[in-house]
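Tip: read the tokens left to right.
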């Protein structure tokens, strides 16, 4: 094995020149950053920047309108005003005299019941009166009551007007009870019944229609007025309850 001239076993290259690669990359990086700065800062300027408004301090003085309006708003929105009902102080509250509770009687004392009244016996009767009371007596027949008939009464302006053609007053009702029927009638100057209006029913529609029909057939004496209004009241008798 041959030794190198330097005394080494292997031959190592001996290069003593300086490499410019690293400085070139550094210069290239600086150039790239400069170009980027030029593009983003000069060619494309940043957006407009609005500075924040300066800080302001508002003071509410005692006599300023803003202070008065704020106080009125706080007073109107106070929940204690709506929650607390207005207090009503009775008149003469402090002038009332003190009354102790024992002066008022709350329970009446129980009283002794009154003695029952003595039973009063009837006076003694004579022997003759006792004998007469034991004898049979003949029953006295009650007088027969005459059956009442149906009547009609005119009131108002027709009270003093003569009826030249009275109605027959023949009615037939199946009801067991009837109330007086009232009609408002209008009579012309010639005595004819022009208008008939039912004011109070008798309770039976059939007999009301019969009364209205007979009212229209009646006639009165002549008068100077064109229409005279009055009331006609029917008082029902026993003859109105007959069956047809």
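Filled-in amino acids:
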């Amino acid at each position: 094995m041959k030794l190198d001239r330097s005394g080494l076993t292997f031959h190592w290259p001996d290069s003593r020149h300086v490499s410019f690669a690293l400085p070139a990359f550094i210069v290239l990086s600086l150039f790239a950053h400069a170009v980027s700065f030029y593009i983003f800062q000069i060619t494309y300027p940043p957006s407009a920047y609005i500075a924040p408004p300066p800080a302001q301090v508002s003071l509410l003085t005692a006599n300023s309108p803003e202070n008065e309006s704020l106080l009125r708003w706080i007073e109107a929105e106070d929940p204690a005003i709506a929650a607390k009902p207005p207090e009503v102080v009775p008149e003469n509250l402090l002038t009332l005299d003190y009354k102790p509770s024992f002066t008022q009687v709350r329970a009446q004392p129980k009283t002794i019941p009154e003695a029952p009244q003595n039973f009063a016996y009837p006076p003694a009767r004579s022997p003759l009166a006792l004998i007469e009371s034991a004898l049979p007596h003949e029953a006295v027949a009650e007088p027969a009551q005459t059956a009442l008939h149906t009547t009609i009464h005119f009131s108002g302006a027709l009270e003093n007007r003569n009826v030249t053609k009275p109605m027959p007053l023949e009615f037939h009702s199946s009801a067991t009870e009837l109330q007086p029927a009232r009609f408002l009638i209008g009579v012309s100057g010639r005595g004819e019944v022009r208008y008939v209006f039912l004011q109070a029913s008798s309770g039976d529609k059939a007999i009301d229609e019969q009364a209205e029909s007979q009212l229209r057939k009646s006639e009165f004496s002549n008068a100077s007025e064109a229409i005279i209004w009055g009331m006609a009241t029917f008082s029902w008798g026993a003859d109105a309850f007959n069956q047809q």
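The radius of gyration is 64 Å. The first strand starts at residue 151 and ends at 156.
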